[in-house]
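Example 3.2
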Amino acid sequence: EISACLVGSEMCIRDSLNASDSGVTIAVPDSIHHLWIEENYLAALRQALTLVLGEAPPVTLTVDDQPPRDASSPRDPSTPREDRNLHEDPPSSRQDPEPDLPAVAGLTADRTFESFVVGASNQFAHAAAQAVAASPGRAYNPLFFYGGSGLGKTHLMQAIGWHIASRRPKARVVYITSEEFTNLFIQALQTNSIVRFRKRFRQADVLLIDDIHFLAGKERSQEEFFHTFNALLDGHKQIVLSSDRPPGEIKDLETRLVTRFEWGHTAELTPPDEETRVAILRKKAESLSVDVPADIISWLAGRIRSNVRRLHGAFIRIASWISLNGPLSISQAEDLLRDLLRQEAENGISIDKIQKLAAKEFDIRLADMVSRKRTAAIAFARQAAMHLTREMTGLSYHEIGEAFGGRDHGTVMHACRTVEKRMKADENVRLRITALETGLRRNL
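Structure, written as tokens:
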């Protein structure tokens, strides 16, 4: 048994870790701890296990009162298991995988299609993922997801892996990041075990590689992956990749890899709209069995807009507070999440972007946003920019006032109320403000 205190969190967790041939199972006290570890420490844990074992074993988190799940044999009890592999290759053309390599590697147990919330921002990518999961090696090969951090690329990739593994028990499914791929390749060169390294990936039936842009500039790793890619594609095995940008925009990536990545299908994931964010939070509350008030969920969905991972982290903090202390107000939630709200403001939509776009839309000078001029046109343009800043960033009224020429928080509050009233009373104003917000989101 291993006891660990998770440094840097407000929770001290005593984990029971069980290692077996099929993977590593970690027991945690409840569902909140389960999600906290998964969101904040699972990647580091998997990397440590890889360095120690030389493999990326399946890691399963389980709540104490539930029996551990065998990560190598995931199964949906409502669906029949299929005893065939991905395709019926002639016996002479298949190689037996090494017995010590797991059938399923690197997957996180609860990243399934059932736990993925579909919205307008990811609907197309979700449909492509389901098509690949239903017909691996035949539909969309390779499948390439791209988009910003924390938008669900990894979730969809792993959902594909679990879906295939649960229905085709003989299929070898491997999930790994390109950084881990590179590290294992270097280790294989150092230990003279390159043959085993190649078998590990080229005998996979489904290869899921996250953050493929990490290969940029790494010539030998690109060379190795190029041959692995060709071997899998020639064998009609499924390849799924993800990146923070489209293949053609990854700098220092060999042209032959770019063209191969574009052979199949590319699908973009964008920041979710507010309805989707609310649905995500409700689903999390349901899965954790925590009663979070509707007004808190609505407020949180309105304040954290650009990153689903940050939205999850904020929700876990709120759910933990409610579990320990009972109900909380929006003002308490704002204090509790002050650092995350500030990150949202810094990493998402900036005041500069809002001011520039609003000045252009209302045909005023950018300098007028911080000036003391009070003509009707300038005043409303400034108020509209303040309203958008409040709605789209995590900044306080005081911080917004400082950015708009040192105005006090009361002035900012009045500006926000004025814009809201005019949007309700005048359809043209509402459409104009909505168009500004859409333009800002498009540039996230």
